[in-house]
Design a protein that fits this description.
Elements: H1 4-22, H2 29-37, H3 51-74, E1 78-84, E2 87-94, E3 96-98, E4 103-105, E5 112-113, H4 119-131, H5 155-159, H6 168-175, H7 185-195, H8 211-225, H9 229-238, E6 247-248, E7 268-271, E8 274-277, E9 292-294, H10 296-307, H11 314-320, E10 334-335, E11 340-341, E12 348-355, E13 358-365, E14 370-376, H12 384-392, H13 405-422
Length: 428
Protein backbone atom coordinates (compact mmCIF):
# COMPACT_ATOMS: atom_id res chain seq x y z
CA UNK A 1 0.00 0.00 0.00
CA UNK A 2 1.42 3.38 -1.02
CA UNK A 3 1.90 5.88 1.75
CA UNK A 4 0.08 9.18 1.70
CA UNK A 5 3.30 11.14 1.10
CA UNK A 6 4.29 8.89 -1.78
CA UNK A 7 0.90 9.25 -3.50
CA UNK A 8 0.92 13.05 -3.13
CA UNK A 9 4.48 13.26 -4.48
CA UNK A 10 3.61 11.02 -7.43
CA UNK A 11 0.58 13.13 -8.41
CA UNK A 12 2.57 16.36 -8.17
CA UNK A 13 5.36 14.86 -10.32
CA UNK A 14 2.90 13.76 -13.01
CA UNK A 15 1.26 17.19 -13.13
CA UNK A 16 4.61 18.89 -13.48
CA UNK A 17 5.53 16.46 -16.24
CA UNK A 18 2.28 17.13 -18.13
CA UNK A 19 2.62 20.89 -17.86
CA UNK A 20 6.25 20.76 -18.90
CA UNK A 21 5.37 18.51 -21.81
CA UNK A 22 2.64 20.87 -23.07
CA UNK A 23 4.90 23.92 -23.07
CA UNK A 24 7.62 24.67 -25.55
CA UNK A 25 11.28 24.55 -24.49
CA UNK A 26 11.47 28.29 -25.16
CA UNK A 27 8.57 29.15 -22.84
CA UNK A 28 9.82 31.44 -20.07
CA UNK A 29 10.39 29.80 -16.70
CA UNK A 30 8.14 32.38 -15.02
CA UNK A 31 5.23 31.36 -17.23
CA UNK A 32 5.65 27.70 -16.29
CA UNK A 33 5.81 28.62 -12.59
CA UNK A 34 2.65 30.67 -12.94
CA UNK A 35 0.91 27.68 -14.50
CA UNK A 36 1.99 25.48 -11.59
CA UNK A 37 0.58 27.98 -9.13
CA UNK A 38 -2.88 27.61 -10.67
CA UNK A 39 -3.03 23.86 -9.91
CA UNK A 40 -5.50 23.22 -7.08
CA UNK A 41 -4.11 21.39 -4.05
CA UNK A 42 -5.74 18.04 -3.38
CA UNK A 43 -6.09 16.83 0.21
CA UNK A 44 -4.30 13.53 0.70
CA UNK A 45 -7.30 12.07 2.55
CA UNK A 46 -9.42 12.47 -0.59
CA UNK A 47 -7.24 10.28 -2.78
CA UNK A 48 -6.60 7.25 -0.60
CA UNK A 49 -8.52 5.06 1.79
CA UNK A 50 -7.32 4.58 5.38
CA UNK A 51 -7.65 0.82 5.58
CA UNK A 52 -6.51 0.81 9.21
CA UNK A 53 -9.49 2.84 10.36
CA UNK A 54 -11.91 0.15 9.26
CA UNK A 55 -9.89 -2.53 11.03
CA UNK A 56 -9.57 -0.44 14.18
CA UNK A 57 -13.33 0.08 14.28
CA UNK A 58 -13.90 -3.65 13.86
CA UNK A 59 -11.41 -4.37 16.65
CA UNK A 60 -13.14 -1.85 18.89
CA UNK A 61 -16.53 -3.47 18.34
CA UNK A 62 -15.08 -6.91 18.99
CA UNK A 63 -13.28 -5.83 22.17
CA UNK A 64 -16.34 -4.00 23.43
CA UNK A 65 -18.41 -7.14 22.89
CA UNK A 66 -15.78 -9.29 24.65
CA UNK A 67 -15.55 -7.13 27.76
CA UNK A 68 -19.29 -6.57 28.02
CA UNK A 69 -19.65 -10.34 27.94
CA UNK A 70 -17.02 -10.67 30.70
CA UNK A 71 -18.95 -8.15 32.78
CA UNK A 72 -22.06 -10.31 32.56
CA UNK A 73 -20.33 -13.69 33.01
CA UNK A 74 -17.60 -12.89 35.54
CA UNK A 75 -18.55 -9.53 37.05
CA UNK A 76 -15.51 -7.87 35.49
CA UNK A 77 -14.90 -4.48 37.12
CA UNK A 78 -11.91 -2.47 35.93
CA UNK A 79 -10.14 -0.65 33.12
CA UNK A 80 -8.76 -1.88 29.80
CA UNK A 81 -6.32 -0.62 27.19
CA UNK A 82 -5.32 -2.35 23.95
CA UNK A 83 -2.74 -0.97 21.51
CA UNK A 84 -1.24 -2.33 18.32
CA UNK A 85 1.65 -1.07 16.19
CA UNK A 86 1.65 2.33 17.84
CA UNK A 87 -2.12 2.83 17.64
CA UNK A 88 -4.21 3.14 20.77
CA UNK A 89 -7.05 0.90 19.60
CA UNK A 90 -9.29 0.49 22.63
CA UNK A 91 -9.54 2.11 26.05
CA UNK A 92 -12.51 1.81 28.40
CA UNK A 93 -13.60 1.58 32.04
CA UNK A 94 -16.22 -0.82 33.38
CA UNK A 95 -17.94 -0.67 36.76
CA UNK A 96 -17.29 1.26 39.94
CA UNK A 97 -14.57 2.27 42.37
CA UNK A 98 -17.00 1.50 45.20
CA UNK A 99 -18.15 -1.94 44.14
CA UNK A 100 -20.18 -2.60 47.26
CA UNK A 101 -22.44 0.42 46.84
CA UNK A 102 -22.04 0.75 43.05
CA UNK A 103 -20.83 4.33 43.34
CA UNK A 104 -18.06 6.39 41.75
CA UNK A 105 -17.83 5.05 38.18
CA UNK A 106 -14.33 4.06 37.15
CA UNK A 107 -12.48 6.02 34.46
CA UNK A 108 -9.34 5.24 32.49
CA UNK A 109 -7.54 7.60 34.90
CA UNK A 110 -8.52 5.56 37.97
CA UNK A 111 -5.49 4.41 39.99
CA UNK A 112 -5.15 0.73 40.89
CA UNK A 113 -2.67 -1.19 43.03
CA UNK A 114 -0.56 -3.08 40.48
CA UNK A 115 0.48 -5.84 42.90
CA UNK A 116 3.27 -7.88 41.26
CA UNK A 117 3.15 -5.86 38.04
CA UNK A 118 5.13 -3.43 40.21
CA UNK A 119 8.11 -5.76 39.79
CA UNK A 120 8.83 -4.63 36.22
CA UNK A 121 9.25 -1.08 37.55
CA UNK A 122 11.54 -2.18 40.38
CA UNK A 123 13.63 -4.03 37.79
CA UNK A 124 13.70 -0.87 35.66
CA UNK A 125 15.11 1.07 38.61
CA UNK A 126 17.90 -1.50 38.97
CA UNK A 127 18.62 -1.35 35.22
CA UNK A 128 18.89 2.44 35.42
CA UNK A 129 21.49 2.12 38.16
CA UNK A 130 23.37 -0.37 35.99
CA UNK A 131 23.13 2.06 33.07
CA UNK A 132 24.52 4.79 35.32
CA UNK A 133 27.53 2.59 36.14
CA UNK A 134 26.59 2.41 39.82
CA UNK A 135 25.69 -1.26 40.06
CA UNK A 136 26.94 -4.67 38.95
CA UNK A 137 24.35 -7.39 38.34
CA UNK A 138 26.82 -10.08 39.38
CA UNK A 139 28.07 -8.45 42.54
CA UNK A 140 27.31 -10.16 45.84
CA UNK A 141 24.27 -8.60 47.50
CA UNK A 142 26.44 -7.82 50.54
CA UNK A 143 28.25 -5.26 48.37
CA UNK A 144 25.12 -3.12 48.70
CA UNK A 145 23.49 -4.49 51.86
CA UNK A 146 26.50 -5.16 54.06
CA UNK A 147 24.57 -6.85 56.90
CA UNK A 148 22.89 -9.42 54.66
CA UNK A 149 23.61 -12.79 56.30
CA UNK A 150 23.66 -15.11 53.28
CA UNK A 151 26.68 -15.59 51.04
CA UNK A 152 26.69 -15.79 47.26
CA UNK A 153 23.37 -14.11 46.40
CA UNK A 154 23.79 -11.68 43.50
CA UNK A 155 21.61 -8.88 42.18
CA UNK A 156 21.05 -10.97 39.06
CA UNK A 157 19.81 -13.86 41.23
CA UNK A 158 17.23 -11.53 42.75
CA UNK A 159 16.09 -10.23 39.36
CA UNK A 160 15.68 -13.75 37.98
CA UNK A 161 14.15 -15.24 41.16
CA UNK A 162 17.12 -17.59 41.54
CA UNK A 163 18.34 -16.54 44.98
CA UNK A 164 16.71 -19.35 46.95
CA UNK A 165 15.77 -16.87 49.70
CA UNK A 166 12.62 -17.73 51.65
CA UNK A 167 9.44 -15.67 51.79
CA UNK A 168 9.52 -12.60 53.99
CA UNK A 169 5.75 -12.89 54.52
CA UNK A 170 6.16 -16.23 56.27
CA UNK A 171 9.00 -14.91 58.42
CA UNK A 172 7.02 -11.79 59.36
CA UNK A 173 3.89 -13.80 60.10
CA UNK A 174 5.84 -15.69 62.75
CA UNK A 175 8.33 -13.11 64.04
CA UNK A 176 6.77 -9.65 63.54
CA UNK A 177 4.77 -9.63 66.74
CA UNK A 178 2.86 -6.34 66.67
CA UNK A 179 1.04 -6.31 63.35
CA UNK A 180 -0.47 -2.90 64.01
CA UNK A 181 2.99 -1.50 63.17
CA UNK A 182 4.00 -1.42 59.48
CA UNK A 183 6.85 -3.70 58.40
CA UNK A 184 9.37 -1.69 56.36
CA UNK A 185 12.04 -2.92 53.95
CA UNK A 186 14.73 -2.19 56.53
CA UNK A 187 12.85 -4.04 59.26
CA UNK A 188 12.37 -6.95 56.87
CA UNK A 189 16.14 -7.14 56.41
CA UNK A 190 16.58 -7.00 60.19
CA UNK A 191 14.31 -10.04 60.54
CA UNK A 192 16.48 -12.05 58.13
CA UNK A 193 19.64 -10.93 59.91
CA UNK A 194 18.26 -11.90 63.32
CA UNK A 195 16.51 -15.19 62.54
CA UNK A 196 18.28 -16.38 59.35
CA UNK A 197 15.57 -18.76 58.07
CA UNK A 198 16.87 -21.60 55.89
CA UNK A 199 16.96 -20.81 52.17
CA UNK A 200 15.00 -23.00 49.78
CA UNK A 201 18.20 -23.79 47.88
CA UNK A 202 21.69 -22.41 47.26
CA UNK A 203 21.93 -19.30 45.06
CA UNK A 204 21.52 -19.93 41.31
CA UNK A 205 20.67 -23.61 41.84
CA UNK A 206 17.03 -23.24 40.88
CA UNK A 207 14.08 -20.96 40.22
CA UNK A 208 11.55 -19.94 42.85
CA UNK A 209 9.27 -16.95 42.36
CA UNK A 210 9.53 -15.07 45.65
CA UNK A 211 8.49 -11.54 46.64
CA UNK A 212 11.53 -11.24 48.93
CA UNK A 213 13.75 -10.89 45.87
CA UNK A 214 12.08 -7.70 44.69
CA UNK A 215 11.68 -6.24 48.17
CA UNK A 216 15.47 -6.59 48.50
CA UNK A 217 15.96 -4.96 45.09
CA UNK A 218 14.03 -1.91 46.32
CA UNK A 219 16.45 -1.76 49.26
CA UNK A 220 19.40 -2.00 46.85
CA UNK A 221 17.98 1.00 44.96
CA UNK A 222 17.88 2.96 48.22
CA UNK A 223 21.37 1.96 49.36
CA UNK A 224 22.99 2.67 45.97
CA UNK A 225 21.14 5.88 45.07
CA UNK A 226 20.96 7.33 48.56
CA UNK A 227 17.29 8.16 47.96
CA UNK A 228 14.05 6.76 49.28
CA UNK A 229 12.70 4.18 46.84
CA UNK A 230 9.48 6.09 46.22
CA UNK A 231 11.41 9.28 45.43
CA UNK A 232 13.81 7.53 43.07
CA UNK A 233 10.91 6.00 41.14
CA UNK A 234 9.20 9.37 40.87
CA UNK A 235 12.31 11.23 39.70
CA UNK A 236 13.78 8.64 37.33
CA UNK A 237 10.73 6.92 35.86
CA UNK A 238 7.32 8.47 36.51
CA UNK A 239 8.12 12.16 35.96
CA UNK A 240 10.34 11.74 32.85
CA UNK A 241 7.67 9.60 31.16
CA UNK A 242 4.75 11.83 32.09
CA UNK A 243 3.22 9.15 34.31
CA UNK A 244 1.29 11.77 36.30
CA UNK A 245 -0.98 9.34 38.11
CA UNK A 246 1.63 6.80 39.17
CA UNK A 247 3.31 6.55 42.55
CA UNK A 248 4.67 4.15 45.14
CA UNK A 249 2.52 3.71 48.23
CA UNK A 250 4.79 4.27 51.23
CA UNK A 251 4.17 3.77 54.94
CA UNK A 252 7.65 5.00 55.78
CA UNK A 253 6.52 7.57 58.34
CA UNK A 254 3.46 5.73 59.65
CA UNK A 255 3.67 4.52 63.24
CA UNK A 256 0.50 2.43 62.98
CA UNK A 257 -1.28 0.69 60.11
CA UNK A 258 -4.17 2.82 58.88
CA UNK A 259 -7.60 1.28 58.47
CA UNK A 260 -7.50 1.54 54.67
CA UNK A 261 -5.05 2.55 51.96
CA UNK A 262 -5.91 6.17 51.16
CA UNK A 263 -4.69 6.05 47.57
CA UNK A 264 -6.37 5.10 44.34
CA UNK A 265 -9.55 3.06 44.22
CA UNK A 266 -10.30 0.56 47.03
CA UNK A 267 -9.78 -3.16 46.52
CA UNK A 268 -12.48 -5.72 47.25
CA UNK A 269 -12.49 -9.37 48.26
CA UNK A 270 -15.62 -11.48 48.12
CA UNK A 271 -17.33 -13.47 50.82
CA UNK A 272 -19.66 -15.49 48.67
CA UNK A 273 -21.29 -12.88 46.45
CA UNK A 274 -20.77 -10.05 48.93
CA UNK A 275 -17.86 -7.65 48.19
CA UNK A 276 -15.84 -6.55 51.23
CA UNK A 277 -13.44 -3.61 51.04
CA UNK A 278 -9.95 -4.85 51.91
CA UNK A 279 -8.33 -3.21 54.91
CA UNK A 280 -4.74 -2.02 55.01
CA UNK A 281 -2.08 -4.50 56.11
CA UNK A 282 1.26 -4.27 57.91
CA UNK A 283 2.92 -5.97 54.92
CA UNK A 284 2.07 -2.95 52.77
CA UNK A 285 5.00 -1.22 54.41
CA UNK A 286 7.33 -3.32 52.22
CA UNK A 287 7.96 -1.88 48.74
CA UNK A 288 9.44 -3.26 45.53
CA UNK A 289 7.41 -6.44 45.17
CA UNK A 290 4.11 -4.47 45.09
CA UNK A 291 2.75 -1.08 46.28
CA UNK A 292 2.82 0.77 42.97
CA UNK A 293 -0.41 2.51 41.99
CA UNK A 294 -1.02 3.48 38.37
CA UNK A 295 -3.52 3.74 35.51
CA UNK A 296 -3.87 1.99 32.16
CA UNK A 297 -2.89 5.25 30.44
CA UNK A 298 0.29 5.66 32.47
CA UNK A 299 1.22 2.03 31.91
CA UNK A 300 0.83 2.59 28.19
CA UNK A 301 3.28 5.49 28.47
CA UNK A 302 5.75 3.09 30.04
CA UNK A 303 5.09 0.65 27.20
CA UNK A 304 5.91 3.38 24.66
CA UNK A 305 9.09 4.23 26.55
CA UNK A 306 10.19 0.61 26.17
CA UNK A 307 9.31 0.61 22.46
CA UNK A 308 11.28 3.77 21.73
CA UNK A 309 14.16 3.43 24.18
CA UNK A 310 13.29 6.54 26.16
CA UNK A 311 14.75 5.21 29.43
CA UNK A 312 16.93 2.20 28.76
CA UNK A 313 19.45 1.40 26.02
CA UNK A 314 18.75 -1.46 23.61
CA UNK A 315 21.35 -3.89 24.93
CA UNK A 316 20.24 -3.52 28.54
CA UNK A 317 16.59 -3.83 27.54
CA UNK A 318 17.26 -7.01 25.58
CA UNK A 319 18.88 -8.53 28.64
CA UNK A 320 15.76 -7.77 30.68
CA UNK A 321 13.77 -9.93 28.26
CA UNK A 322 16.30 -12.79 28.25
CA UNK A 323 15.30 -16.00 30.07
CA UNK A 324 17.10 -16.13 33.42
CA UNK A 325 16.73 -19.90 33.77
CA UNK A 326 17.70 -21.39 30.39
CA UNK A 327 17.58 -24.96 31.71
CA UNK A 328 14.33 -24.46 33.60
CA UNK A 329 11.84 -27.11 32.42
CA UNK A 330 9.35 -27.44 35.26
CA UNK A 331 7.27 -24.57 33.90
CA UNK A 332 6.51 -23.59 30.34
CA UNK A 333 7.40 -19.92 30.89
CA UNK A 334 10.62 -18.28 32.04
CA UNK A 335 11.57 -15.09 33.88
CA UNK A 336 13.79 -12.18 32.89
CA UNK A 337 14.19 -8.94 34.83
CA UNK A 338 10.71 -8.17 36.17
CA UNK A 339 8.99 -9.88 33.22
CA UNK A 340 7.73 -13.39 32.64
CA UNK A 341 8.67 -14.73 29.21
CA UNK A 342 6.38 -17.01 27.21
CA UNK A 343 7.99 -20.37 26.58
CA UNK A 344 6.28 -20.79 23.20
CA UNK A 345 7.01 -17.22 22.06
CA UNK A 346 10.11 -15.60 23.53
CA UNK A 347 9.14 -12.28 21.95
CA UNK A 348 6.12 -12.15 24.27
CA UNK A 349 6.56 -10.94 27.85
CA UNK A 350 4.01 -10.34 30.57
CA UNK A 351 3.26 -10.13 34.27
CA UNK A 352 0.24 -10.67 36.46
CA UNK A 353 -0.48 -9.16 39.86
CA UNK A 354 -2.79 -10.27 42.67
CA UNK A 355 -2.84 -8.60 46.09
CA UNK A 356 -5.42 -7.43 48.65
CA UNK A 357 -8.43 -7.08 46.37
CA UNK A 358 -6.55 -6.13 43.18
CA UNK A 359 -5.64 -8.05 40.05
CA UNK A 360 -3.59 -6.73 37.16
CA UNK A 361 -2.46 -8.01 33.75
CA UNK A 362 0.22 -6.52 31.49
CA UNK A 363 0.82 -8.44 28.23
CA UNK A 364 3.27 -7.42 25.46
CA UNK A 365 3.74 -9.20 22.13
CA UNK A 366 6.90 -7.46 20.92
CA UNK A 367 6.93 -9.18 17.53
CA UNK A 368 3.38 -8.20 16.62
CA UNK A 369 3.69 -4.90 18.55
CA UNK A 370 0.59 -5.53 20.63
CA UNK A 371 -0.07 -4.55 24.23
CA UNK A 372 -3.01 -5.39 26.47
CA UNK A 373 -3.33 -3.88 29.96
CA UNK A 374 -6.15 -4.81 32.33
CA UNK A 375 -6.54 -3.48 35.89
CA UNK A 376 -9.24 -4.60 38.32
CA UNK A 377 -10.15 -3.89 41.95
CA UNK A 378 -11.74 -7.29 42.64
CA UNK A 379 -10.18 -10.54 43.80
CA UNK A 380 -12.45 -12.43 41.39
CA UNK A 381 -12.93 -11.96 37.68
CA UNK A 382 -12.02 -13.28 34.25
CA UNK A 383 -9.05 -15.61 33.90
CA UNK A 384 -5.96 -14.70 31.91
CA UNK A 385 -6.95 -17.00 29.01
CA UNK A 386 -9.53 -14.40 27.98
CA UNK A 387 -6.78 -11.80 27.62
CA UNK A 388 -4.37 -14.09 25.79
CA UNK A 389 -7.12 -14.84 23.27
CA UNK A 390 -7.33 -11.12 22.55
CA UNK A 391 -3.56 -10.71 22.19
CA UNK A 392 -3.19 -13.77 19.95
CA UNK A 393 -6.04 -12.88 17.58
CA UNK A 394 -4.40 -11.75 14.32
CA UNK A 395 -7.52 -11.76 12.15
CA UNK A 396 -7.68 -7.95 12.10
CA UNK A 397 -3.98 -7.08 12.30
CA UNK A 398 -3.01 -3.49 11.53
CA UNK A 399 -0.43 -2.32 9.03
CA UNK A 400 2.94 -1.07 10.32
CA UNK A 401 3.09 2.61 11.26
CA UNK A 402 5.89 5.15 11.09
CA UNK A 403 8.40 4.45 13.89
CA UNK A 404 8.70 8.18 14.58
CA UNK A 405 5.10 9.37 14.79
CA UNK A 406 4.24 8.05 18.22
CA UNK A 407 7.61 8.83 19.77
CA UNK A 408 7.00 12.47 18.79
CA UNK A 409 3.42 12.27 20.03
CA UNK A 410 4.60 10.96 23.39
CA UNK A 411 7.24 13.67 23.68
CA UNK A 412 4.84 16.48 22.73
CA UNK A 413 2.16 15.11 25.05
CA UNK A 414 4.61 14.93 27.95
CA UNK A 415 5.85 18.48 27.33
CA UNK A 416 2.27 19.79 27.18
CA UNK A 417 1.28 17.98 30.36
CA UNK A 418 4.40 19.25 32.13
CA UNK A 419 3.45 22.85 31.29
CA UNK A 420 -0.08 22.22 32.53
CA UNK A 421 1.23 20.52 35.66
CA UNK A 422 3.60 23.39 36.43
CA UNK A 423 0.96 26.06 35.79
CA UNK A 424 0.32 28.25 38.86
CA UNK A 425 -3.37 28.41 37.88
CA UNK A 426 -3.95 24.71 38.52
CA UNK A 427 -4.91 23.70 42.06
CA UNK A 428 -3.88 20.26 43.35
Amino acid sequence: MFSCCYRTSLIATLLIFLISGCSSPDQPVKTRHAALNTIPLIAADSIYINLDQSRIEQQQRRLDSTFNRLVKLTGFNGTVLFAEKGRLVYEKAFGFADIKNKRDPLTTESQFELASVSKMFTATAIILLKQDGLLDYDADLRTYIAEWPYEGVTVRNLLNHRSGISRYQSLAHEKWIDKTIPLSNEKMIDLFVKYQPSPYFKPDRGFHYCNTNYALLASVVERVSGENFEDFMQERIFTPLGMRRSQIYSMRYDTVVSAYVELGVPGFDHRGWRPIQVRNDYLNGVMGDKNMFSTVEDLYRFNQALDYGLLIGDSLLREAFTPGSPNHRRRADNYGFGWRIRGDADSTVYHYGWWKGFRSFFLRDMQQHKTLIVLTNKDKGPGSDNFWNILNDNSLSLYPASTNIHYKALRVSNETEQKEYDSPNITR
